[in-house]
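Quick illustration for those who missed Monday's session on complexes.
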Amino acid sequence: MCIFCKIVIGEIPNNTVHENDNFLAFHDLYPKAPIHILIIPKEHVDCFQNVPSGTMAKLTTFAQEVATKVGVDKSGYRLITNNGDDGGQEVHHLHFHMLGGGKLKWGHLHDETRKSL
Ligand code: AMP
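Prediction with adenosine monophosphate bound:
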């Protein structure tokens, strides 16, 4: 069982922000911004590339509720998912990082800027 599935069943403790039957939002253990929440489906899906679109539709509303709950709905936030090896995904249970609480930096994420396709 993956680490986030263990969090869902309560085997590993978490700092819950918001929850419903389908999703859980909790504080990231190693925050990379003043507010850093992880949003996960309770059902195991390994990554964004394999998530059913119906799950994403429900997740949209849930993420908006999380933003309101932690107070970044008006100030703004970044919602990202790392998908697969090149995306830097370390936990293979779909999760979205909600980052906010301050002006976030934005810059090049790789030495090469563009690949011609
Ligand atoms: P990613 O690199 O996109 O797979 O992100 C995984 C995230 O999970 C990282 O930001 C970690 O800090 C976070 N993380 C790992 N284990 C835990 C945990 N037990 N509780 C909360 N966050 C965790």
